[in-house]
Every structure is written in C-alpha cells, then in structure tokens.
Design brief:
Distance between the termini: 52 Å
Order of helices and strands: EEHEEHHHHHH
Shape: elongated
Strand content: 5-15%
Radius of gyration: 28 Å
Structural class: mainly alpha
Length: 211
C-alpha cells in the first residue's frame, strides 16, 4: 500500500497521490486546528473583567469568558442600554427627568424579561453566562431598584401635579423640574446611577463586540 506517491506522468507532469485513509486523517487534523484557531482568534475575544465597584455593586471582580450564549445576551442588553436614556450621560439642562425615569423603568422590565426567557438548560453548565446573568441581575436589584424605589414615585407624583398647575402653563418641563424641592439630592443620586450604568454598558460592549 502506497501511503504517499510522487511521480511524473507520460507528459512529464508532476503528480502526487495519497492513500484515502491518510487523506481523511490529515483533513480531520487540519480542520480541528483551523477550528481552534478561529475560535481563539476570531469568534471569541479575551476574557472580560467586570469590576463590581466600577459598576456600583458590592462584591469582587468577576471574569467572564465569551461564548455564543453570553455574547448574544450581552448584545441584547447593550442594545437596550444604548438606545435608551440609561446608558448615556444625563443633561439636566435639557433632559426631562420624567422621561429619563420612563426609560430607566422600561429598561428594568425589558432586561428582566430578557434574562428570564433564557432557556435554563442552555446555561446550566455555562459558568460565564451564569456570571453574566448574576451581575446583570445585581445591576437591576442593587443598582437601579433602590434609586427607583426611593425617588421615582415621589418625583412622579410631584411632577404630575406641578405640570397641571396653572402657574406653570408657560413653563417648559425643564423649567418645571428645577422647582422640585429635593432636586439637588435627586440629581446627585441619578448621576451616580448614570455613571455606574455607563461603565456597565462599556463592559457589556466589550463582551458583545470584543475589545
């Protein structure tokens, strides 16, 4: 049995032949290493470190290894952050606080549903995705929820009354919101949450798109 054979034919063309079993084994071997190379250098980026302090929650730094599942989750969360007034700096001179709260509240609900609808069987043995879900849930529960609980209902009630006041008929929403009695405290806490969420969005971007 000729494993390899190199020869010239009648017209002096160089020919090369290989036994079919060797060809199959070689193809599998090459294919495996091509897959490993693509997986390492193209499909997935390096591990992403989430610094808990940077994004405003308690705990140690979490390292997440990108894979198909958590890249998909990260992309969907990033889209929500990037298309709402939650992952962008708040401009209190021009942004309407009432509308910012609408955006924050909607993000909370959409993110919760996104996480909840992930098939549990797909993440059961996937440590990276479980860590991503854990840290995203904590962002909602430890980062966003306390502020919304403390401020949102009170501010909405005040604003809805203020905007109906005849004395404010000629005022813009931005002018009206400046009259909120606890505006400085509200702004300070909103800016803190906003900074944390922007940092979180940055990390989610790295996970979804690569560094």
């Amino acid at each position: 049995m000729d494993i390899f054979k190199i020869y010239f034919d009648d017209k002096w063309n160089l020919n090369f032949s290989m036994h079919w079993m060797i060809f199959v084994i070689t193809s599998v071997f090459i294919g495996f290493w091509v897959y490993k190379f693509i997986k390492r250098h193209w499909l997935f980026t390096d591990n992403i470190d989430f610094d808990s302090a940077e994004i405003g929650i308690n705990g140690q730094k979490i390292t997440i290894k990108p894979n198909y599942i958590n890249i998909d989750v990260a992309y969907k969360i990033w889209v929500e952050l990037n298309t709402r007034k939650i992952g962008l700096p708040i401009d209190f001179e021009h942004d309407v606080i009432y509308e910012v709260y609408n955006s924050w509240y909607q993000f909370f609900g959409v993110s919760r549903e996104l996480i909840k609808n992930l098939p549990a069987i797909k993440i059961r043995n996937d440590k990276g995705t479980k860590e991503l879900i854990k840290i995203s849930t904590r962002i909602l529960n430890e980062g966003l929820r306390p502020h919304l609980t403390q401020w949102q209902a009170r501010y909405r009630r005040w604003y809805e009354r203020a905007i109906k006041d005849e004395a404010n008929n000629e005022k813009s929403p931005q002018q009206i919101q400046k009259e909120y009695p606890d505006l400085d405290l509200l702004k300070t806490d909103m800016e803190r949450i906003n900074r944390n969420l922007i940092a979180y969005k940055s990390k989610i971007y790295e996970l979804a798109f690569g560094k």
